[in-house]
Amino acid sequence: MTKKRLVILGGGESGVGTALLGKAKEYEVFVSDKGRIKERYKQVLINNGIDWEDEIHTESKILNADLVMKSPGIPDKVALVKQIRENGIQVVSEIEFAAKFTDATLVAITGSNGKTTTATLTHHLLKQELSVGLAGNIGDSFAKQVLEGGFETYVLEVSSFQLDDIVDFKPKIAVITNITPDHLDRYDYNFENYIRSKFRIAENQTKDDFLIYDADDEVIVNHLKNHPVQSTLLPFSLEKNIENGAYYENKEIKITINNTQIIMPTTKLALEGKHNIKNAMAASTVAHLLKIRKQTIRESLENFQGVEHRLEQVLKINKVQYINDSKATNVNATYYALESMDAPTVWIVGGVDKGNNYEELFSFVNEKVKAIICLGVDNEKLLKTFGNMVDVIVETQFMSEAVKIAYKLAESGDNVLLSPACASFDLFENYEDRGRQFKDAVRNL
């Protein structure tokens, strides 16, 4: 019997993890990356005898595949991907491929914002009592963890790009934290396409599965009205009482599932801000569904420290607080950041604009922002949008310079906030690199 040929486009974390799992499951595996494969990943492929190439895609070695796993970073518009599909070869994402080889309970979390915090927090709540892995967009690849077979439950942070290439992927529990315009450059600038993509998380679910979502998010609520899903719905809300699901009242989170209610006080929540109460409601609902004890949920919520690059307090210098929110790669994320500022703020913003509309930030900028530092290759839209709103607006292309300017502009009691509202690829490798450079520059002041 000839082995099935699995071709993997992209030699990063998900690609290499899939290659290892594919090899173990008797596929003939080939990894192809148009860019350079990092040295450590190359070594893994070499040590495992897996065929690979980088800085090129050799079509003859790709178009003979039985199955293609493509990295979420590669758009469908790419000629090679179109050709693969035209040849009738199935294209899947890592989560689709890996899920076939595990019987673990899958908790999948998506959303334009809050998904990393919610996934990390959910994992934190579950790991006290369950054998649970954290994967998807975070940490070690899902495929590699499935291969190592360590966990009975997985919390997966999944992006719309990963959901675009699922076929049978079906989480027991799906969470949609919110949906706001993001990555529209990948969805023909059509918000509806992006919404549909997020909702694929529930498309294979049945009534025995659960969909947890933000009932205050009109986009989600309207989509559910017009496109009902099979799943059992468990909404969460800050604004209204919820019969089945979670809501917030008198500084308490109340969660009801099948007539059993648990109540969580939020006064000692480690994470601040309204959006984090929502993240806590989503994570606690998952924990309650998976029968984690109330006491454990409460303690875990109180000792959870948050996620790096997400409203991360770096240092206080001369009574000025420096805050790293590099993970804010869209306007809605920056909205939460500015909303939570309680002092005059010097705001560092900019990068690759994905079709942003900055209007929802205007009231916060008028009220809280004293100066803006634009950090990007092309800052024209920012200068035009905010130029008249603040007294000081400057541009730079170096993080170290941006931080030095901020240091000069900030006075005792102010905040300096890096919350770019944009992707990072014009000046940085990724948002982590951007956040680390910010922290290094602050420490070097």
Describe this structure in words.
Keywords: ATP-binding, Cell cycle, Cell division, Cell shape, Cell wall biogenesis/degradation, Cytoplasm, Ligase, Nucleotide-binding, Peptidoglycan synthesis. Its EC number is 6.3.2.9. It is a single chain. With 445 residues, the protein is of the alpha/beta class. The protein folds into 3 domains: 5-92, Rossmann fold, CATH 3.40.50.720; 96-303, Mur-like, catalytic domain (UDP-N-acetylmuramoyl-L-alanine:D-glutamate ligase); 312-443, Protein-Tyrosine Phosphatase, Chain A (Alpha-Beta Complex). The chain contains 17 helices and 20 strands. The protein has helices at 13-24, 39-47, 59-62, 79-86, 94-99, 115-126, 142-148, 160-164, 191-199, 218-226, 274-289, 294-303, 331-339, 362-368, 380-386, 399-409, 431-443; strands spanning 5-9, 28-33, 51-54, 67-70, 90-92, 105-110, 132-136, 153-157, 173-176, 210-214, 232-237, 245-249, 252-257, 260-265, 312-317, 320-324, 345-349, 369-375, 392-396, 415-418. The strands form 3 sheets. A 9-stranded mixed beta sheet has the order 7-8-6-9-10-11-12-13-14. Strand 4, helix 4 and strand 5 (90-92) form a beta-alpha-beta unit. Helix 1 runs parallel beside helix 7 (142-148), helix 6 (115-126) crosses helix 11 (274-289) and helix 6 (115-126) packs across helix 12. It is globular, with a radius of gyration of 22 Å. The mean pLDDT is 92.
